[in-house]
Design brief:
Order of helices and strands: HHHHHHHHHH
Radius of gyration: 29 Å
Shape: elongated
Number of helices: 10
């Protein structure tokens, strides 16, 4: 693959990646070279190894939009003194991807305060609903924050990670109310109906 990302001769070519994504990865490394000059050349002194590293980053970051990758790179070079690892880059991209999601504690408070039925409550993000459901609503309502929040946080962050990978959460099913609601009869009405039935049967 060209554009600085080369395919080794003799190997089957992988499925082509979108040009915008390849360009984004190349821009990332160009920015790293400019901003972490000495560190960059110490870490990537070999062109062949650099191409392998770029392929690894491309494969690991392909779930993010090119704009997200470049935004994360800008934040990193403005705030970090040292050349970032791939793990740091993924975390930065995930943080940007999660910007529409409430933080874990805000999500916990929202889940605890939501009115019933939970499926029809208005949620800031459906990730909050599904995290609460995964924890069990009774558990959240009947345990202290000290006990419940760590459990909720774990479930919530798992769902946030799935969202960052592109999962679309579906709105929960809300059971429709029956067309007719039968109200139980009172004692006097039951006696009247029983009397009418006896008359009809000639008892």
């Amino acid at each position: 693959m060209k554009n600085n990302l080369q395919t080794e001769a003799g190997q089957a070519k992988p499925k082509p990646q979108p040009t915008a994504l390849i360009d984004a990865i190349n821009q990332v490394f160009a920015l790293f070279q400019l901003n972490y000059h000495n560190q960059y050349f110490k870490a990537f002194s070999n062109e062949k190894d650099l191409n392998y590293i770029k392929k690894l980053w491309l494969d690991s970051l392909k779930r993010f939009a090119p704009e997200t990758i470049l935004h994360a790179t800008k934040i990193i070079i403005e705030t970090k003194e040292f050349l970032p690892t791939l793990h740091s880059m993924i975390e930065a991209c995930e943080k940007i991807s999660h910007k529409e999601l409430p933080d874990a504690h805000s999500a916990y408070l929202e889940a605890c305060r939501a009115p019933s039925p939970k499926a029809s409550a208005k949620w800031n993000h459906l990730a909050v609903y599904y995290a609460g459901k995964a924890c069990d609503w009774y558990f959240l309502q009947n345990n202290s924050e000290f006990v419940a929040f760590p459990v909720f946080k774990e479930k919530y962050l798992e769902i946030c990670h799935r969202v960052s990978l592109g999962e679309v959460l579906k709105a929960p099913n809300i059971e429709a109310l029956p067309e007719e609601i039968h109200t139980p009869l009172g004692r006097s009405e039951n006696l009247r109906k029983l009397s009418s039935l006896k008359d009809a049967l000639d008892l």
